[in-house]
Amino acid sequence: MIHIFYNKFLFIFAILFLQFFQAQRTKTDTVYVYEKVIVYDTIYLEKAVKNRSNDIIFKELVIKELMLENQLPQKPGKDRINKNKTSGFEFGIEAGVGFKNSNWAKELSNGKQQFGQNSGIWISKSVSQNLYLMLSANVYHWSSTFDLDANKEDTYLNGFYFTEDSEPLLFQRFNNKHFEYIAQLKVLYEWKKIRPFVGFLANRNVYKMQFLVPENNVLDKLDDFKSKQFNFGFSFGIQYLVFPKLLISADYQYYRMKDLSLKNSSFDFDIFKTNNTFAERKLNLGISYTLFK
């Protein structure tokens, strides 16, 4: 009896031990719990409101667009360049050389042309996109092509001349070396780098003839008789833009001289007083530089 009870006890103990051992070997599972958090908020949508002040509507969008356009960098273009051209004046200087042919001195100079140099200043203004007005003032110095000297040779001008008051004048010398002053208005048309032009001019030639004149009733004073009349004419030519401020030019000038009168303020006398009209022609080459715009 005791033996049977002992066997049952061992059998039950063995089963419990095996169950306990198996439970110790089983892996424990981890359980994760996730929560979904939802946050609710209130969003208000409002329509754009137009501001009214005395029936004037201000639109925010239009103002912002204008401000942005003003802040954008402007690219240089033809329209902007032309606007600058028409907005101001240009000032410059010029110099050149040329040849001159005068009808009245043709026989004396044996057909030779006078060589001369000139310098001047000018101012111009653009009156439209390609049209310019230019006003210039130049001084020319022309060399001589003949020389009449009564002390060296017998010329057809040698001898005595008498004033209206019967005062004697004795011819000494004369040549066509002289200064010339010109004022000119030009109309120029610009096409790319080329500027053809026409001009209207007024000039004054300062020729000198020397006489011995009386002083204290003695004929021993040298004095000059000068031409003083103004002449009018026209010109045409072309300019070429080499660099933005550097121009080269060629032009032809023509004007008429009515009479050739040489006078002296101290004597009532005209030498070379004629009723003829003479023509003078010039061909010039020049270079011009723009000082500032």
Descriptive overview:
- With 293 residues, the chain is of the alpha+beta class.
- Helix content is 15%, strand content 52%.
- The protein has three helices and 17 strands.
- The strands form three sheets. It has an eight-stranded antiparallel β-barrel. Strands 6, 7, 8, 11, 12, 15 and 16 form a seven-stranded antiparallel sheet that branches. A two-stranded antiparallel ribbon has the order 1-2.
- Strand 15 (262-264) and strand 16 form a beta hairpin.
- The longest helix is centred in the N-terminal third of the chain and has 24 residues, at 2-25.
- 17% of the residues are buried.
- Mean pLDDT is 80; it is low at 61-72 and 77-86.
Furnish the topology, listing elements before pairings.
Layout: H1 2-25, E1 51-53, E2 56-58, H2 60-71, H3 78-85, E3 89-102, E4 114-126, E5 131-142, E6 147-149, E7 160-162, E8 168-175, E9 178-189, E10 194-206, E11 208-215, E12 218-227, E13 230-243, E14 246-258, E15 262-264, E16 267-271, E17 277-292
Antiparallel strand pairs: 1-2, 3-4, 3-17, 4-5, 5-9, 6-8, 7-8, 8-11, 9-10, 10-13, 11-12, 12-15, 13-14, 14-17, 15-16
